[in-house]
């Protein structure tokens, strides 16, 4: 049963990446001295979304529930559009990181949800 949720493992890694990406990409931490027009809100956005995605993916690995996938889809969508809504699109590296990783979270969570629904229908 766990082997069919390999997408959750990928989503977990993506969530962990979102947490550490501000340090590794921009070499900055949240605070008033963040360079390149990147606000503390943008940094905290990465931290909070990354932690939430990673926790939901880990929970889904333990006991799969569809709502966990839907929440990860919503969080991935938020991450995808957050550079423009929070105003950190001026930092190209963080912007593209958020867009690409957000899209991947949406894709893998949606894929896992669709696969689980297909298996549920096949079992009937």
What's the helix and strand layout?
Elements: H1 6-25, H2 40-62, H3 66-86, H4 92-123
Please characterize this protein's 3D structure.
With 124 residues, the protein is an all-alpha fold. The chain is 77% helix and 0% strand. The protein contains four helices and no strands. It has helices at residues 6-25, 40-62, 66-86, 92-123. α1 packs antiparallel against α2 and α2 (40-62) packs antiparallel against α3. The radius of gyration is 15 Å and the shape is elongated. It starts with 5 loop residues before the first helix and ends with a helix. The model has no long low-confidence stretch (mean pLDDT 84).
- Average pLDDT over all residues: 84
Distance between the termini: 17 Å
| Uncertain stretches | none
Structural class: mainly alpha
Describe the biggest sheet? none
Strand content: under 5%
Tally of DSSP helical segments: 4
Radius of gyration: 15 Å
Shape: elongated
Number of strands: 0
| N-to-C order of helices and strands | HHHH
The share of residues in helices is over 70%
Short overview:
The chain is an all-alpha fold. The protein is built from four helices and no strands.
Keywords:
124 residues; elongated; 4 helices; 0% strand; mainly alpha
């Amino acid at each position: 049963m766990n082997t069919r949720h390999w997408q959750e493992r990928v989503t977990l890694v993506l969530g962990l990446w979102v947490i550490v990406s501000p340090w590794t990409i921009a070499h900055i931490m949240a605070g008033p001295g963040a360079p390149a027009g990147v606000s503390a809100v943008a940094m905290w956005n990465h931290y909070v979304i990354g932690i939430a995605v990673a926790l939901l993916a880990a929970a889904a690995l333990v006991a799969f529930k569809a709502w966990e996938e839907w929440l990860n889809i919503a969080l991935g969508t938020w991450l995808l559009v957050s550079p423009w809504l929070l105003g950190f699109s001026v930092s190209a590296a963080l912007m593209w990181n958020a867009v690409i990783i957000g899209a991947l979270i949406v894709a893998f969570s949606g894929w896992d949800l669709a696969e689980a629904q297909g298996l549920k229908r096949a079992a009937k």
